């Protein structure tokens, strides 16, 4: 993830907490309390969305920190006890951990509960969490398009989702009321919400997010392999372009490993197109085909204008 | 170029104009008045570095605009008359134009004048400008590591170079006093100055700047080739990583065409390494080698820390 809104910016479209009104959920459980989990806690508390926030994290340090920072009102060593009586369970850990978490919590979910997540891939989430869910538990996967290059429970903040998109990918036949409730939840966290099919999400994000991260990781890796003297000069003069890639390539390694392993086909398809285009450009440089270069470099400006017009710049 | 300092930020290390002191140069000529040329005019006037600023631009519109904005005190249709009596001539046009400009101005340069430039490649500049210079004219090529994605005479501002590096690459045997004067010039424009050999500059910038721009242009081009419906979704969700590439890929097309044509060997060498690394990563994704992915994604974080420690983040 690479979007870093100003921490102190006023919320763009987050409704203020309504005094005296009942929270949207009596009890919410966060499984995993890193950047997104902790930011969700801040955003939920800002909007008064949960009567009680329970948490589970694998590491002792994160559990202690989450309590210390007031991110959760109760903390649990095992996921099964964390989800007990929860009306909403949000998995905020790397997507590679979902199958194990699903197996651990499945039989402990409250009837009528909503099971959601914040993972960057969505077909794999439905594959790993969907089967064997008890009747009356509603799976509504989600993906907030927001993040920073920082990780851990201390890195979260309430405004992370303000003005950003959140994509929900409920499988066909999902209870409409549950989907509606999750739309209200994310809007109250400051987001704009879009509902789409999981496969379509994965294809779109392969281009907008997964391929850019892959490329950034690659070029920073290429530099990491250079000899020390060269590397220190690259760092010194990094403001000329390279720097922008390093921020993207500082994102959480385990999270991104799991993204690439779980959206393999869509990522390889886009990577194939990119590699072809790169080879064509390489050939144009080798043969001194200035017209081809200039034509491409002119065409790409239109995309930038589109992003500025869409107010996503 | 991709560095965008705040336009209204106070200058970090630009010395104030000393009241009553003589300017460093009586007459400075700018050949080309785009982002860098116009910013140089602003920076020179801020620091009182030139008694008179003359200018040449190829297009009638740019010449009129430069006068209207007060960027130059005299404007000239042809480069030869623009450089007459100048103590310093700075070429600020795409590097592909240097050979022609060099031929046009060569016989009109004042004895003792310094000929410099701001191009992103340096060996080609010495190749195109160096031969046949009159005795007593000093070639001191330069490259300010600063820029934005905007172009044209209206896009310049005085603080563009503040706190940024400027690299000078005088050929062996260049007059030391001329080099010293250009160091003082760039420091007065707000920059930190580094002197290095032209070939070393070109290798270093191939990694820090040329390859990142090439990759950004490629991925934005890959997206530009997608069908319209997909493209509009990519723009909508671009904050998830893609957006950062579009800013880099909005830089001036002709300038960048000339960079790649004139630093071919160094760019192809770095591009070759990058392509190998990308292929290795592609293979790791295809075969589900999570350990390899995680190891790379962890290693790249160290480079980011280096940039933060070097205060270039």
Automatic annotation (TrEMBL), chains A, B:
SUPFAM superfamilies recorded: 6-phosphogluconate dehydrogenase C-terminal domain-like, NAD(P)-binding Rossmann-fold domains
GO process annotations (BP): tyrosine biosynthetic process
Pfam families: PDH_C (PF20463), PDH_N (PF02153)
Record bears the keyword Amino-acid biosynthesis: yes
Prephenate/arogenate dehydrogenase domain sequence ranges: 26-313
Catalytic activity: prephenate + NAD(+) = 3-(4-hydroxyphenyl)pyruvate + CO2 + NADH
UniProt keywords, alphabetically: Amino-acid biosynthesis, Aromatic amino acid biosynthesis, NAD, Oxidoreductase, Tyrosine biosynthesis
Pathway stated in the Swiss-Prot or TrEMBL entry: Amino-acid biosynthesis; L-tyrosine biosynthesis; (4-hydroxyphenyl)pyruvate from prephenate (NAD(+) route): step 1/1
Family note: Belongs to the prephenate/arogenate dehydrogenase family.
Protein's name in the database: prephenate dehydrogenase
Species annotation: Hypericibacter adhaerens
């Amino acid at each position: 993830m690479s979007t870093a809104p100003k921490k102190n910016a006023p919320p763009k479209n987050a409704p203020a907490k309504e005094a005296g009104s009942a929270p949207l959920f009596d009890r919410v459980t966060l499984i995993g309390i890193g950047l997104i989990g902790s930011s969700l806690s801040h955003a939920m508390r800002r909007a008064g969305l949960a009567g009680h926030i329970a948490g589970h994290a694998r590491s002792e340090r994160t559990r202690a920190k989450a309590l210390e920072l007031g991110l959760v009102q109760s903390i649990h060593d095992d996921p099964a006890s964390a989800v007990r009586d929860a009306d909403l369970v949000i998995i905020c850990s790397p997507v590679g951990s979902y199958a194990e978490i699903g197996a651990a919590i499945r039989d402990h979910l409250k009837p009528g509960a909503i099971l959601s997540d914040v993972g960057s891939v969505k077909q794999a989430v439905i594959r790993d969490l969907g089967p064997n869910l008890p009747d009356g538990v509603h799976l509504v996967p989600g993906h907030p398009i927001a993040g920073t290059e920082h990780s851990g429970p201390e890195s979260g903040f309430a405004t992370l989702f303000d003005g950003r998109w959140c994509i929900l990918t409920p499988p066909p036949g999902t209870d409409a009321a549950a989907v509606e409730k999750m739309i209200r939840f994310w809007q109250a966290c400051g987001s704009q919400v879009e509902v789409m099919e999981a496969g379509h999400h994965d294809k779109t994000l392969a281009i907008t997010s997964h391929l850019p991260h892959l490329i950034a990781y690659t070029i920073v890796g290429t530099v990491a392999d250079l000899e020390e003297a060269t590397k220190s000069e690259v760092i010194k003069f990094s403001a000329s372009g390279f720097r922008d890639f390093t921020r993207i390539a500082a994102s959480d390694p385990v999270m991104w490993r799991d993204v690439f392993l779980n959206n393999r086909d869509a990522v390889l398809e886009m990577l194939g197109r990119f590699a072809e285009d790169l080879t064509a450009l390489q050939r144009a440089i080798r043969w001194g085909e200035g017209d081809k270069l200039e034509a491409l470099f002119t065409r790409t400006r239109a995309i930038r204008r589109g992003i500025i017009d869409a107010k996503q710049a």
